[in-house]
Amino acid sequence: MGSRSVPGEDSAEFAQALRDLRDARLRSEVRLTEVPAPGRIAPHAVALSAEVVNVGLSEGDALASGRFVLLHDPSEPDPWDGAWRAVTFARAVFDPELANDPMLGAVGWSWLMDALASREATCVAEAGTVTRVVSESFAGLSDRSATVEMEVRASWTPTGPDMGTHLQAWADLLCTVAGLPPLPDGVVALPRQRR
What we know:
Layout: H1 12-23, E1 30-35, E2 44-53, E3 62-72, E4 84-94, H2 104-118, E5 123-135, E6 147-158, H3 164-177
Antiparallel strand pairs: 1-2, 2-3, 3-4, 4-6, 5-6
Helix pairs in contact: 2-3
């Protein structure tokens, strides 16, 4: 994350959360960029955009993409059930055979819940949707294969002291939807061939 000023940095709690996010260790395939945060949802906010790339391929070939927004409102809005809210999405293209899989949505949601649990990123008030879009091409574009895009949109209220674990869990979700195998800490993945 860059060092530019973020609205709300004057809050000691939010400043600590920013340090947690900056210190979070992510897989080398995750390219993180700070982007403008929403300004009217909460007094304090930071937004990050990410792409998951295959280290062995050109930078233009993203396997997955998404956004992570961390909001802080000391007034603890009722729907949040706390002073923090993580608002995220993760998107990737899948094989067309998955278009009619009735479990795809439930599996996508379980990937997020598993990522949060494995990082011990405790939270409450989880909410979200998993959407799949099937694109088929016709006429002059008929030589293109059908594609299935899955998008996981989710929000939750972090309850643990380290906001970096929530960023790590979300990055794990991005890597999962990108099709990367899970890695134990300290292990580096070898580049894979794109289908």
